[in-house]
Design brief:
GMP Synthetase, Chain A, domain 3, 410 residues, OB fold (Dihydrolipoamide Acetyltransferase, E2P), DNA-binding transcription factor activity, single chain, 15 helices, 37% helix, N Utilization Substance Protein A, Chain:P, domain 4, alpha+beta, five-stranded antiparallel sheet, 25% strand, translation elongation factor activity, four-stranded mixed sheet, protein biosynthesis
């Protein structure tokens, strides 16, 4: 009963949800063998019998009987006189099994053993959680907001596992309160100091893809394939879809009548504007489709440096670029081409890069970020709108416009 009473004090492992009976026995034996090795120098001649259901164990030390005065290895040998104190009919050469009580290990050893056992159990739990969530990487998961911090929110699932959603993994319009249920994707799982670090994301393109799998039956069934998805979280996204069944219209099936099917996805993503387009292996046609809703007149590709010159009517240019340059940026990500927009029918125009002597490089790059590559493209914009869409001051923009106008006046 002494061992049973001591094992009862190790109650942390008794109802552990992650440990099956076989694993528990293996951990218990490993911990106790380590304690025996520290105490006696070796554990090779010990038998450990564990009953995890009752929380009890027995430890037996096996030694060989040797004549009195000839004991060389006290852990493995016992003198005849000592053996006969256990059983009076023992003879030299026989094996003696003697039960070792945990109390015999000493109080300090028992405390160390208890801490070691609990540490091993927690380590096993953490490894199990890590493997469980590693298998869920790329999948949608739901958890409840437990704590809101400045740079992240802490979530707990139904099993009490902790997940973290950093600020940069949240959609800009997201607003959470404690107790809210949040859907996101398991983006990454790492072991940090034996503790699993589970990162949830709502900004990953994978989250958008998985929402399509959940909300669109044909995508879930594999009749429609998502070839690629790109997004600017909370603003705009483009999803290229394809179907191997000619009878299915992949875009129509994803969008639904008057947007009925995609509406739930849009709402989940904070009213993110989603363009669904038909995938094609024809790169020219793919560039054309990616710039929707703009109507493209002509596309010239340079596959060597992956650039595309796109020509549109002047009234289509703003559609191709989109608010804040979002449309053209996503089109580039979707196709893999760096897209330059040109106005059809405008004979005289000059690339912004030609003005490097008069306009600083970083200013040119700031304008190109929003799809403005030529002088006329900039001159057609409203100054106030350019201030909003770039990180440039109004004074800087007015100076740029003055330089560009002089070019055409000359």
């Amino acid at each position: 009963m002494e061992n049973l009473a001591l094992i009862e004090s190790f109650s942390e492992f008794k109802d552990d949800k992650f440990i099956d009976r076989v694993t528990l026995m293996a951990i218990l034996e490993e911990v106790f063998r380590a304690a025996l090795k520290r105490k006696f120098g070796s554990d090779d001649n010990f038998d450990i019998i564990i009953n995890p259901d009752k929380g009890d164990l027995e430890i037996w030390r096996n030694r060989v009987v040797v004549p009195d005065g000839e004991v060389e290895e006290p852990n493995e040998e016992i003198s005849l006189s000592e053996a006969r104190k256990i059983e009076p009919d023992f003879e030299v050469g026989e094996d003696v099994s003697e039960e070792v009580k945990l109390i015999d290990l000493g109080r300090r050893s028992i405390l160390a053993l208890r801490q070691n056992l609990i540490a091993k159990i927690h380590e096993h739990d953490n490894t199990t959680i890590y493997k469980q969530f590693k298998d869920l990487e790329g999948e949608i998961y739901t958890a409840e907001v437990h704590h809101i911090r400045h740079k992240a929110i802490i979530l707990l699932d139904d099993e009490g596992n902790e997940l973290i959603m950093p600020k940069e993994k949240q959609i800009p319009s997201d607003f959470f309160r404690k107790g809210d249920n949040v859907r996101g994707i398991i983006e990454s799982v790492e072991l940090k100091g034996n503790k699993p670090l589970i990162i949830m994301s709502r900004t990953s393109p994978k989250f958008l893809e998985q929402l399509f799998h959940q909300e669109i039956p044909e995508v879930f069934d594999g009749l429609i394939t998502i070839k690629k998805a790109v997004r600017i979280p909370g603003e705009k996204a483009k999803v290229a879809v394809d179907s191997y069944d000619d009878r299915i219209d992949p875009v129509g099936a994803c969008v639904g009548m008057k947007g009925s099917r995609i509406h739930g996805i849009v709402r989940e993503l904070g009213n993110e504007n989603i363009d669904v387009i038909n995938w094609t292996n024809n790169p020219q046609l793919m560039v054309t489709r990616s710039l929707s809703p703009a109507r493209v007149t002509q596309v010239k590709l340079n596959d060597e440096n992956m650039t595309a010159q796109v020509y549109l009517k002047p009234e289509e240019v703003s559609k191709a670029i989109g608010r804040g340059g979002h449309n053209i940026r996503l089109a580039g990500q979707l196709t893999g081409y760096e897209i330059d927009v040109y106005r059809e029918g405008v004979e005289e125009d000059v690339e912004l890069t030609e003005f490097r002597d008069e306009i600083e490089e970083w200013i040119i790059m700031e304008l190109r970020k929003i799809g403005l590559d030529t002088a006329r493209a900039v001159l057609e914009q409203d100054v106030e709108d350019l201030v909003k869409r770039t990180d440039l001051e109004e004074e800087t923009i007015l100076d740029v416009i003055r330089i560009l106008k002089e070019e055409f006046e000359d």
